[in-house]
Design goal:
The protein has 170 residues and is mainly α. It has two domains: 90 residues, no CATH class; 53 residues, no CATH class. Strand 1 and strand 2 form a beta hairpin.
């Protein structure tokens, strides 16, 4: 249960306190994207990919955007193969905007970078509320360099959004 003595809104004293972790977290996320999720095509250009489970949800999102419904591909049997209903709807939104094929995963990867930044900020705020500026800075650094979580942020799964929601609770 939240402590009623803690203020709901705690202004961040200095953006410089969490700028370093923010930059490090974003660079780490970009490195993971560049090494794991982007491959050159033989004919030129780039292909953006997500992990397998996220790509399955992306196929369902593509089918929904194409008007075929919640199916793996148009004409396939209707079975539930996606992981998260809301995340698949979010992916469908990007398909409606024209992100499909080789660049279909790009907005999802960029969403992961955005959620890394949000998580660093909210962890700093949470640490500042609980223990002051030093704890806030330490929390931001932990959020920025904790490789497993950064990896999940940019894998294409909804884990990054859920981590932000959990760390933004004051």
């Amino acid at each position: 249960m939240p402590n009623p003595d803690l203020p709901i809104f705690v202004p961040v004293k200095s953006w410089r306190s969490w700028l370093g972790p923010l930059i490090v977290g974003e660079v780490l996320g970009l490195l993971i994207i560049g090494i794991v999720h982007v491959v050159p095509k033989p004919e030129g250009g780039w292909r953006f990919m997500l992990i397998d489970d996220a790509m399955i949800s992306m196929c369902y999102a593509r089918s929904l955007a194409e008007g075929c419904g919640w199916v793996w591909y148009c004409g396939a049997e209707r079975v539930q193969g996606y992981t998260n209903f809301l995340w698949t709807l979010y992916m469908t939104f990007w398909h409606f905007l024209g992100f499909s094929g080789d660049i279909g995963a790009l907005p999802i990867l960029l969403t992961g970078l955005i959620t890394i930044g949000m998580q660093v900020y909210w962890l700093y705020r949470l640490g500042e509320v609980v223990g002051g500026g030093a704890i806030g800075r330490m929390s931001a650094w932990v959020g920025a360099v904790f490789f497993p979580l950064i990896r999940w942020h940019v894998s294409g799964m909804e884990t990054g959004v859920l981590a932000v929601l959990l760390s933004s609770y004051e």
